[in-house]
Design a protein that fits this description.
two-stranded antiparallel sheet; about 350 residues; single chain
């Protein structure tokens, strides 16, 4: 009937244990989702870089053809053509490295998803561009902080651990209290056969009572268990405070990185625009014999570097956005891919 609250706290501990197990499963699912997100974004970055390099290979091949035509006219030296052919070889080597790296990431992604080994996963560039453009309206840091405080799995696990420690204190206190039980019994005895001459008699015995159990030794022994349980409860409260503080720092850092990435994308877009303008001007001057080949090569390399940097900046922007969602434990869908 009464056990000093041990029964109620035991039931509550079982419920909290179930909740902790569910949070562990959700945390593992969240970690796998973020791992897949990293693979997807890496694959997208490599595919975009491959596309940029291919465009520059086509552009370089076009320049070489034009130089060969001018070579026949005597306005271009063979050394100029050789310089561009060397640049073409470098671009083709870069393309091979990027393709191999993309194959590696694709294999890791396919293995993690338990798809057939021959599966080739391709990013949906339209969906990715839509997501990047949608990031122009970023919620305030305070809203992200509130979302993390409500949803972060680490904080929720620490809170459950604190509740478990509190129930353990109640369990330890319950051991120092008496337990009360109601006892009822009804027995019907048949013929008595233990004597030499059995007696035909039926006896019905019943009783109802109250049982009280209390261990005097617990008054001294259980004080240490109570003190230990209270210390564990205090430690769990400190762990909860540290978890909240760590998540707050994580959200602040991720939000700041997201804003930095957004600024970097805008900067790289401007640099690509300037690099394209510079390349057009230098190309026109070179064709009119007003610029050196080294100026042309430098302009081409500047254009390639700017476009590659823009690709990296756009994917980094998405990565920091998903990182912020991961820190706040907010659910999100993986980048859309086709296979």
């Amino acid at each position: 009937v009464y056990a000093g609250g041990a029964i109620r706290s035991g039931i509550r501990m079982a419920e909290l244990g179930k909740e902790m197990a569910e949070l562990d499963v959700e945390k593992n699912r969240q970690e796998v989702r973020f791992l897949l997100t990293g693979y997807c974004l890496d694959l997208c970055k490599l595919n975009n870089q491959i596309e940029v390099v291919r465009q520059h290979i086509a552009l370089t091949q076009k320049e070489i053809e034009q130089m060969k035509a001018r070579r026949k006219q005597g306005t271009v030296l063979q050394n100029d053509i050789t310089r561009y052919e060397l640049q073409l070889q470098g671009l083709e080597l870069t393309l091979t490295k990027l393709t191999d790296a993309s194959t590696v990431i694709n294999h890791q992604l396919v293995t993690t998803l338990h798809l057939p080994a021959q599966t080739v996963i391709l990013p949906d560039k339209h969906e990715l561009d839509t997501e990047i453009n949608a990031l122009s309206a970023i919620a305030t840091q305070e809203l992200w902080q509130q979302t993390a405080a409500d949803n972060n799995l680490g904080i929720r696990q620490a809170a459950v651990a604190t509740n478990l420690a509190e129930q353990k204190v109640k369990q330890a206190k319950a051991a120092s209290l008496p337990s009360v039980a109601l006892v009822a019994e009804n027995q019907l005895f048949g013929p008595y056969t233990q004597d030499l001459i059995p007696k035909d008699c039926n006896v019905n015995v019943w009783f109802v009572g109250v049982g009280v159990k209390f261990s005097l030794g617990n008054l001294w022994k259980n004080k240490h268990q109570i003190r230990k349980a209270r210390m564990e409860y205090q430690q769990s409260q400190e762990a909860l405070a540290l978890a909240r503080e760590g998540v707050e720092h994580g959200v602040q850092a991720s939000y700041t990185n997201l804003l930095t990435s957004y600024t970097e994308v805008e900067t790289q877009q401007k640099q690509v625009e300037l690099a394209n303008q510079n390349y057009s001007v230098v190309q026109n001057r070179y064709q009119n014999d007003l610029a050196l080949l080294t100026d042309m090569v430098d302009a081409s390399n500047m254009k390639l570097s700017a476009e590659m940097a823009l690709v990296n900046a756009r994917i980094d922007l998405l990565y920091h956005f998903y990182k912020l969602k991961y820190v706040t434990s907010e659910r999100y869908a993986l980048p859309i891919f086709s296979r």
